[in-house]
Every structure is written in C-alpha cells, then in structure tokens.
Amino acid sequence: MTSLLEASGIALGTRLAPLDFESLGGELVALVGPNGGGKTSLLRALARVEDAAGDMLIDGAALDGLGEARRRRLVAFLPASREIAWSIAVRDVIAMGLGASDAARVDELVELFGLATLAGRPIGTLSTGERARALLARALAARPRLLLLDEPLSNLDPYWVLRTLELLRDAADGGATVMVALHDIGQVGKFDRLMLLEGGRVVGDGPPRALRERLGALFGVEATAGGWAISRG
C-alpha cells in the first residue's frame, strides 16, 4: 500500500534529531512529551515553516517547491499561538484556508464549529477558545491530506474538546493523517497512534495501549483506575 506521508531525515537544528516517519493515512496520531521534548519542532519541520532538513513526500509529491494551491490541498499547519493580527471577519478567516471561493464549504465549517453567531465578527474580538475553533476550521477548510495541529485542544471547554476530537476523527476516517501535539495524556486513548518525544527524539511509536507504561515513566506518573496519578515509586 502506498504511504500518504513519507518523511526521511527530518531534523530541525539542535531541537529535533533526524528521524524517519511514515503514515498510510487514515490515522489520528498523538505527539506527546515533556515541555521542550520536540513536539512543536516536529510539526514545524514537517510543515516546512522553518529551514528543516530532510525530505517530505505527501501522496508521492515532494512538499518543497510546490505551489501554494497544491500545497494547501496537501498539508495544513495550525500553530499553538491563537493571537491574530488581522481585523477581518471570522467567515473570511475560514475562507482563507480554501484559496478559492466556496461559500458552501465556509457555511459547513461555520456550522460544524458552532460559529454562526460569530461569523461576521472580527476574529480579534473573539475569546481564545472561539479563535481556536475558527482557526481549526480554516485548517480543515481545503480537506488537506496531512493535518499538523499544535495543541488544538488548548483553551477549549469540555464540550469542544470532545467535539473537536470527533471532527479530527472524521478527517482521519476520510483518509487524512492527523498529527496532534497533545498535553492532556488522558486523551491519548482516543488516538490510533502515539509518538513519544523527549529531548528532540522519538522514544516510542505505536498504539497508545502498548505504550502506556512508557508514557507514564516519561512524565513520572502511573495509570490508575481513575486515570493517572503521580508515581511514588
């Protein structure tokens, strides 16, 4: 089976050691690790938003050098920052993810992300959580093959954490690879694949259940019947 994503020798200065990565598509991938472990660096290296080393193929096409229209259909990157300098309407922010006029798709995303009453407001007037939903809608707009999302669940209330996970699952079920930097380890069971990062290196890669003990050891916690607790061992 042909891989959706093939990354080889991906590295970013001293922040991310060279690594190879492959995904067949149709999977939800959690990137988990301590602060400074390399989660954001990996996403930025894959998105090619910095001068990263290595090669990236998506559906067999080299990402470097692609035109903006083709790139938008292949990959979207959502940074952790929700600060917005533009004084433009939420609806127009979402449309920026498309590259071509598609009012029906914008309407669909406004509805999916509960933004109907906010769609005409300048995005800078929204709360952090509301902006997070609008920016995620923009990332999903063109239905990219690879979604690279840095802490998309941050600043969301409980309903929208769960609803966002549903929407990301829908994208993966549609064939995309969805990579999510995650701090809440209580959510890893909702993912197909867990990549553990520490010191700029991948130290674990596999199904979340198989990496449960290694995950706990990485953070100094242990699994309990109710979730996680500080490890006293």
Report on this model:
By secondary structure, the protein is of the alpha/beta class. Helix content is 30%, strand content 27%. It contains seven helices and twelve strands. It has helices at residues 39-47, 68-74, 90-95, 103-112, 128-140, 158-173, 212-219; strands spanning 5-12, 16-23, 27-32, 53-58, 61-62, 75-78, 146-150, 177-181, 193-198, 201-206, 221-224, 227-230. The radius of gyration is 18 Å and the shape is globular. 37% of the residues are buried. The model has no long low-confidence stretch (mean pLDDT 91).
Question: What's this model, at a glance?
Answer:
With 233 residues, the chain is α/β, with parallel strands linked by helices. Helix content is 30%, strand content 27%. The protein has 7 helices and 12 strands.
Which structural class fits the helix and strand makeup? alpha/beta
Whole-number average pLDDT? 91
Give the distance, in angstroms, between the N- and C-terminal Cα atoms: 44 Å
* Strand neighbour order, sheet with most strands: 6-7-8-3-9-10
Name the helicity range.
25-40%
Strands, helices and their partners?
Elements: E1 5-12, E2 16-23, E3 27-32, H1 39-47, E4 53-58, E5 61-62, H2 68-74, E6 75-78, H3 90-95, H4 103-112, H5 128-140, E7 146-150, H6 158-173, E8 177-181, E9 193-198, E10 201-206, H7 212-219, E11 221-224, E12 227-230
Parallel strand pairs: 3-8, 3-9, 6-7, 7-8
Antiparallel strand pairs: 1-2, 1-4, 4-5, 9-10, 11-12
Any key phrases for this structure?
alpha/beta; six-stranded mixed beta sheet; 12 strands; 233 residues
